[in-house]
DNA sequence: TCGATGACAACAGATGCTGTCATCACCGCA
DNA sequence: TGCGGTGATGACAGCATCTGTTGTCATCGA
């Protein structure tokens, strides 16, 4: 394989997204992805632990959010800490076009939707541990993190459909919606 | 299979739980489960679409909750509807001993944890659709359902650790905790 | 009694994923 | 210029999951 080509991982990710879009996830084999990227099937598994992960490896969202939590003002309430961290999440997103293609592919396949869910749950777990380091009790930390992830889903869903709004606006809007809903 | 024997599906479920406990999920093959239940590997797949599902097939939780939502008083707020439905969820749970064994097996394996998450997400989706039938806008319905599922996780986690408390008490407690957390 | 139905076994095959070893390009260094 | 080390890759073998298909047997209803 020529060395002047860009890195193998990026080629695999692009080839996989392309193939998943045209053929569907299940109908494309790992050998096809690897072949389109100029590698062998075995080499694919050197870059990604399994076939699904090729769509999820690039994100640095978790590290970004955790860093924001760790540098948040000490007197902030846990919920507010996560909310303000979330408001800056668009800093690590790739282009909206890429996100939309990815979302469509994921939504079209149950196995990928599963992986997406567990990735979000991983983020929730990391956020919960970050809260624990601020002194929040573990059970409550996980609870608040789960709720904030729900807010994130609500906000990003609107964000993908409405390019005009900023993510932090939509986060605040979802939080207000939640307060409204839970108030008797 | 003789009629006086218990059904094949139940035998497969029990054999699988047993084997997963002693050998771990990955190290037990479908052929082993089927063999322990007196069936062939091929027959296993007539009862369950895949190996993981043998641990998740029995639950009628979703149908129970949806039924509760559909018979709820029309003037209740969406959040309250789901909360009161959740409070009756213990009516469809099996024995605590069975639940604990199951939880341990699931927690010990990432693939099973994934499936557990997606099952909860399925419940959230069903609850959201039930809310839509009451006139709630789809995006908000899903949002509220996700939040209520977070409440459910918080409550059941406490419930498994504390046999004394009732589930509906713990649900109300988690809801109060949420109101407290989101109030500025 | 006969035909339909359903449960099951048996077999073949595609695919995901892993372990192992050989190979080759490149690197620093003498 | 040549040498050895290192890391990436290819080649190959193998196991397990899951699917499609077919044949057999028991059961059930007309």
Fold and architecture overview:
The structure is a homodimer of 184-residue chains. Chain A is mainly α and 184 residues long. Chain A folds into 2 domains: 8-54, Arc Repressor Mutant, subunit A (Orthogonal Bundle); 59-182, Tetracycline Repressor, domain 2 (Orthogonal Bundle), CATH 1.10.357.10. The N and C termini of chain A lie far apart (64 Å). The longest helix of chain A has 24 residues, at 138-161. The first copy, chain A, is elongated, with a radius of gyration of 19 Å. The first copy, chain A, is 67% helix and 0% strand. In chain A, helix 5 (78-86) runs parallel beside helix 8 (138-161). Chain A binds a DNA duplex (30 and 30 nucleotides) through helix 3.
Fold blueprint:
The structure is a homodimer of 184-residue chains.
Chain A: H1 8-23, H2 30-36, H3 41-47, H4 61-70, H5 78-86, H6 96-107, H7 110-132, H8 138-161, H9 167-182
Chain A binds a DNA duplex (30 and 30 nucleotides) through residues 1, 3, 8, 29-31, 39-43, 45-46, 49-51.
Average per-residue pLDDT of chain A, rounded, comes to 92
Overall number of domains of chain A: 2
And the CATH topology of the largest domain in chain A? Answer: Tetracycline Repressor, domain 2
Give the low-pLDDT segments of chain A. 1-5
DSSP helix fraction of chain A:
55-70%
Largest interface, chains and sizes: A-B, 33 and 33 residues
Number of helices, where a helix is a run of at least 4 consecutive DSSP H or I residues of chain A = 9
Order of helices and strands of chain A: HHHHHHHHH
State the major sheet of chain A: none
CATH architectural arrangement of the largest domain in chain A: Orthogonal Bundle
Give the termini distance of chain A in whole angstroms.
64 Å
How many β-strand stretches of chain A? 0
CATH class of the largest domain in chain A, named Mainly Alpha
Oligomeric grouping of the chains? homodimer
Secondary structure category of chain A: mainly alpha
């Amino acid at each position: 394989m020529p060395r002047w080509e860009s890195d193998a991982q990026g080629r695999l990710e692009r080839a996989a997204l392309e193939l998943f879009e045209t053929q569907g996830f299940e109908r494309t084999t790992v050998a096809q992805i690897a072949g389109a990227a100029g590698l062998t099937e075995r080499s694919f598994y050197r870059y990604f632990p399994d076939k699904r992960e090729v769509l999820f490896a690039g994100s640095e969202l978790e590290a970004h959010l955790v860093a924001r939590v760790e540098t948040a003002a000490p007197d902030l309430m846990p919920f507010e800490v996560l909310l303000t961290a979330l408001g800056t999440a668009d800093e690590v997103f790739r282009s909206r076009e890429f996100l939309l293609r990815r979302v469509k592919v994921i939504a079209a396949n149950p196995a990928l939707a599963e992986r997406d869910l567990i990735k979000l749950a991983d983020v929730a777990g990391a956020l919960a541990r970050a809260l624990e380091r601020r002194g929040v009790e573990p059970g409550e930390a996980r609870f608040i993190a789960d709720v904030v992830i729900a807010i994130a889903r609500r906000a990003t869903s609107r964000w993908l459909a409405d390019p005009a709004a900023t993510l932090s606006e939509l986060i605040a809007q979802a939080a207000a919606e939640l307060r409204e809903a839970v108030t008797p």
